[in-house]
Amino acid sequence: MSNLELPVLGQDDQVACCTPMVREPLGEDAAIDLAKMFKALSDPVRLRLLSLIASHEGGEACVCDLTGPFDVSQPTISHHLKVLREAGLVGSERRGTWVYYWVLPAALARLSSLLQAPAGAR
Amino acid sequence: MSNLELPVLGQDDQVACCTPMVREPLGEDAAIDLAKMFKALSDPVRLRLLSLIASHEGGEACVCDLTGPFDVSQPTISHHLKVLREAGLVGSERRGTWVYYWVLPAALARLSSLLQAPAGAR
């Protein structure tokens, strides 16, 4: 992206990256790239972590907010957060004692647009 | 679903199943269910198969249309199609010699809505 402003989702400049798969078949490279992102979403704990981050007040969550709801250890949570970060779904930053996480909206929008369903199909 | 008509996507009766994760955190059961669908999407060949089916003329594709573009064997394609079907992403029907596949739009819409990005987040 050439400027620091984030795109308004659904605008024309996003179309090239987010063509719904009902409109045209995916190329090999795009499929490899997207499959990695879907793999990061293929674990229930990671999905819940992502949704906790995404829905957290202010759009970001401290790692200290993310361990309570789960029956898994802190290192396991950290591992899942790393997978989400490496898949390009969340960003993170250390501030003092804690690491903060936020979702990367362009990544979510890319997947969401890809999966847009056909209105008239059965 | 109580009738044979498919829902028009984006209508109110779909909202309960498709709340964006930026709006509220996912529950455990929903996360387990959705993770299975994302797992089906976590393979590049399956993603390309799904997109070939989804974008095929008439909204459905014969298995005979789906083997040509891939460097993998027919049994491998059949296995991937089975995974997509078991995840609830495609439907299928045998007609004469061939099996035909189509995407299930409500499933795609559910995932697409779940991943809708926050417009104002960073």
From TrEMBL, chains A, B:
GO molecular function: DNA binding; DNA-binding transcription factor activity
Span of domain HTH arsR-type: 26-122
Database matches in SMART domains: HTH_ARSR
Keyword field contains DNA-binding: yes
Xref: InterPro entries: ArsR-like_HTH (IPR011991), ArsR_HTH (IPR018334), HTH_ArsR_DNA-bd_dom (IPR001845), HTH_MetalResp_TranReg (IPR051081), WH-like_DNA-bd_sf (IPR036388), WH_DNA-bd_sf (IPR036390)
Alphabetical list of Pfam families matching this protein: HTH_5 (PF01022)
Domain of life: Bacteria
Entry keywords, A to Z: DNA-binding, Transcription, Transcription regulation
Name by which UniProt lists this protein: ArsR family transcriptional regulator
Native source organism of the sequence: Kitasatospora kifunensis (Streptomyces kifunensis)
